[in-house]
Amino acid sequence: MSAWSVTRATVRFYAGAGARVALRNSVVGTTAALFVLLMAPYPLRVLRALADSLAAAGSPPWALWVMTILGAVLARRAAPQVLAGHSGWLRSLPVSPAVQRRAITAALVLVQVPILVFALCCLLGVVLAPGLRVAPVKVLAWAPLAIAAGLTALPSARRAWVVAACVAAAALAGGGTVVGLVASLPALATADALAGRPAVQRRRARWRSLGWLPQRIAWRAISWRALSPMLAAAVPLAGAWLFRTNNDLDPAAAAAAARIGGVIAVMLSLAGLANALHVRRPVWGWERSLPWSSRRRALHDAASLAAGLVPVWLVVVVMDIGAALAVVAVSPMFALLAAAAIRRAGARLSAAAGEVIVLGGLIVAVLALVPGSIVLCVAATPLAVRFAARRDRDRPVSHWLELHHSAEGDGLSWSAR
Amino acid sequence: MIRFEGVRFDYGVDGPALQETDLDIGAGLTLLLGPNGAGKTTLLKLAAGVERPRTGRVSVDGRDLWSDEAAARLRLAYVPEQPDLTPYATLRELMRLVCLLRGEPTQHGTEALARAGLEAVADRTVRELSLGQRRRALLAAAFIGHPPTLLLDEPLEGMDRAMRRFLVTWVERETSGGATVLVATHEIEPFAALASRAVALADGHATLWEQLSSVSAERLRQLEALARGER
Predict the structure, then answer these.
(1) I want to staple A169 with a disulfide (CB 3.0 to 4.6 A). Which of A121, A184, A218, B132 is the partner?
(2) Structural domains in chain B?
(3) Does ipTM top 0.90?
(4) Which helix (H) or strand (E) holds B29?
(5) What pLDDT, on a 0 to 100 scale, did the predictor assign at position A269?
(6) Which of A210, A220, A285 sits opposite B97 (nearest CB)?
(7) pTM
């Protein structure tokens, strides 16, 4: 069997898996695209803006970046399906690691086809629309961008380096210049070479939805004790409201007042809720022996705490919708910091609230001084997830200070004995 | 198979609770023996992924407890001596949580509660239960999904006679079915005949004893000596 036949057979094998995932993605993608377009007040304008950004000369390439990020997400999600069986018998076949890697990459590019089809439809809009000029170099950049997105999902021992090379390739290709496009090719080749032999992915425990079960348990423990943090949160909200009502402010200043008041309310609310959750439902040791990760436990706690922020969000919505969006956007990070604080609360006299107020206060100060730092806050949310998960993993279970755990309502709790 | 590789643990005060330990605990019943404070519960907590070792790694059936958290824990059930369940969850909710995490139909939770004799109190919150009922609830959670690794800390303590008989029979059935069962206990006699090996703990040092006498009286004496910290 010639090398070409082997390559063709391998590519066809993996492409089959990629095509099946692409079909599934196309259903979800079409539904999502239709939903977004139909919900927009002027769908044709949205399409035109997309087409401009994707293919027209001289327009900012934001849609290209969105397309690449979406492609990388799709490829990442599709990787387990494409690689099913890769760790077993398939590795015994006489196929070189390079051929196997490229075949997998091709399949991971194929799963992005629904996005490329959507982009083509937009391009058609550009061609048909009068007065617009297509930049071929921008359209040609789609290919390296899709390959870069696919390569980021490739399992590899040097994944961080591969991703760095892909980001460089995407940055060059998305620049919209011929030089950038050509320069992106060696960057992609470097990413491919760095990837090496496709790593064997260990099968992870299947993600099973728990519904709202952990939140229900947490809120049963908190119950009416949520009122006190809400009262604390009402103070900055009332301050912002009065400031806006009694002063003749320009729209930007009025929005800033609502935003700062809202963020302070989020911080105070979470500080109180975290303390209530820590006392009434302390993080229990036995749950760590159950098959869920520390990251998931921290996320569930953050979700439970964030549920208590709904009244704050509603009040800020009434004041200023833009400010409300900013407050909602930073809430996950605050909630994760509160979930992390619960995991150290037993060893601190200030319990969880102290840490939330100190860390949160610093963030609020930065947000007040530099409004653009909201973007940084949102971008730092994954880091907050890691921080909370690490806190959960490193939490000493058996040697905690019982002084700070109230036996309230539980006659058999540890501290009651 | 539970594997400890260079595991060391301390509580941040005094000396290490567990000195650097290397152990391979295979299928069958392993008794964890030693005087009070020897580190039996600590070793079980490390095996269950409740405590994280300061150094070294613990794996269950080849999966590291701290780098492959969910998958490794899918293979084990832990019944602690102190039933540290969250006070505001109902038993039904707890069983549902365990079923969902182990990928079992939620009906199995109800069945497990019935097996542990807790069906009548299924809708009570944990704080409304007695200590014995809480321990039974943890046992019920261990029944769900038949995990092949069972970690039991003083399982007979606080149990009535019927439940003690049931527990010993259950351990016998699980070990004969190929499960790895690790039991920390001061009550050696009910488990002596079933034990394949023992881990003796003294001053934070763990020693594996694979050669147990086949003569029952001698085996019991041997195990009791290990429990007193004698070698």
Answers:
(1) A184
(2) 2-75+148-227 (3.40.50.300), 86-147 (no CATH)
(3) no
(4) strand B28-33
(5) 96
(6) A210
(7) 0.68
